[in-house]
Automatic annotation (TrEMBL):
Function: Catalyzes the synthesis of GMP from XMP.
Highest taxon above the source species: Bacteria
Pathway: Purine metabolism; GMP biosynthesis; GMP from XMP (L-Gln route): step 1/1
Parent sequence residues shown: 204 to 526 of 526
Coiled-coil features, chain-numbered ranges: none
The protein's name: GMP synthase [glutamine-hydrolyzing]
Catalysed reaction equations from the record: XMP + L-glutamine + ATP + H2O = GMP + L-glutamate + AMP + diphosphate + 2 H(+)
EC number assigned by the record: 6.3.5.2
Alphabetical keyword list: ATP-binding, Glutamine amidotransferase, GMP biosynthesis, Ligase, Nucleotide-binding, Purine biosynthesis
Length: 323
């Protein structure tokens, strides 16, 4: 019979057996799947596991700290953090096209990750033979099905490594669905904010700025996003919505008035959606007073933003993300 305790015990035994006295590497994204996979493998092999977190500078407010501090505190995992913000910003300079942004972020990510990997392999210690991945059952079915669905956007994920990888894979979540993964994470004592995190795209805020990605724009979007998340949480709506991208229309300006002055600032888009699996989605009918609060706070607190708009498009025809 299925219990999270059984799943954990079984996996811990299987992973120990498989890894023996060798070492393993795991990429952390801040998301649920990689966090739970890493925590499970850490429980099995302890310091034989090293996790890598690439900080691409495109995360939301507080997310990197959550991995660096809370996740490490909860699991005792050995973590290598690579601060690659400058590198990513440099590579993204002058780029506005969404697909180009995704390709650049994916490419840089793999380069930085491989570099970190090489450094870990070069460290003293047993051979690094294993790579941990947070593959879930639906991913297994999807890729095994070979249905050849059209690639509408090139998706990028942590661990989206090249074909010729020289590692054996550890995929402790292969038989689990998302809700089961959350239960296992909870049982392993992971922080609530990680276990119940809503989906967030690998390319991060890089695909939530319509226009060129700059440090200044990222900081501005981080502030707006943090306000929206704070108010949605305060209103108790986190579990009702699938996710709520907050998008900065950096290439658009509109006229506003604030105090006695005319402003000419950027709009922020709220994109709250309800969904079962992200394949289709509907825009969430959020309470007006919550929307009002978010709008007031963002226009008051975020420099250069003088308008907040609500995206009322379902998917299809709109995708969840704007890029
Ligand atoms: P779209 O915009 O295609 O998004 O309707 C569907 C879901 O996927 C997420 N998303 C991504 N996740 N890497 C990811 O790991 C990506 O490149 C990526 N692009 C979109 C999006 O947030 C939504 O949950």
């Amino acid at each position: 019979n299925w219990t999270t305790g059984n799943v954990i015990d079984e996996q811990v035994a299987a992973i120990r057996e498989m890894v023996g006295d060798k070492r393993a590497i795991c990429g952390l994204s801040g998301g649920v799947d990689s966090a739970v996979a890493a925590a499970l493998v850490q429980k099995a092999i302890g310091s034989q596991l090293t996790c890598v977190y690439v900080d691409h500078g495109l995360m939301r407010k507080g997310e990197t700290e959550q991995v660096e501090k809370d996740f490490v505190a909860a699991t005792g995992v050995q973590l290598k953090v690579v601060d690659a913000e400058e590198r990513f910003l440099k590579a993204l300079a002058g780029i506005s096209d969404p697909e180009q942004k995704r390709k650049i972020i994916g490419r840089e990510f793999i380069r930085v990750f491989e570099q970190a990997q090489a450094e870990i392999i070069a460290d003293e210690g047993p051979a690094v033979e294993f790579l941990v991945q947070g593959t879930l059952y639906p991913d297994v079915v999807e890729s095994g099905g070979g249905s050849g669905t059209a690639n509408i956007k090139s998706h990028h994920n942590v661990g989206g490594l090249p074909e010729d990888l020289e590692f054996r894979l550890i995929e402790p979540l292969r038989k689990l669905f998302k809700d089961e993964v959350r239960m296992v994470g909870q049982e392993l004592g992971l922080p609530e904010e990680i276990v119940h995190r809503q989906p967030f795209p690998g390319p991060g805020l890089g695909i939530r700025i319509v226009g060129e990605v700059t440090k200044e724009r990222l900081d501005l979007l981080r502030e707006a996003d943090a306000i929206a998340r704070e108010e949605l949480t305060a209103a108790g709506l986190d579990r009702d919505i699938w996710q709520c991208p907050v998008v900065l229309l950096a290439d658009v300006r509109s006229v506003g008035v604030q105090g006695d002055g005319r402003t000419y600032g950027h709009p922020i888009v709220l994109r709250p959606v309800s969904s079962e699996d992200a394949m289709t989605a509907d825009w969430s009918r959020l309470p007006y007073d919550v929307l009002a609060k978010i709008s007031t706070r963002i226009t008051n607190e975020v420099r250069d933003v003088n308008r907040v708009v609500l995206d009322v498009t379902s998917k299809p025809p709109g995708t969840i993300e704007w890029e």
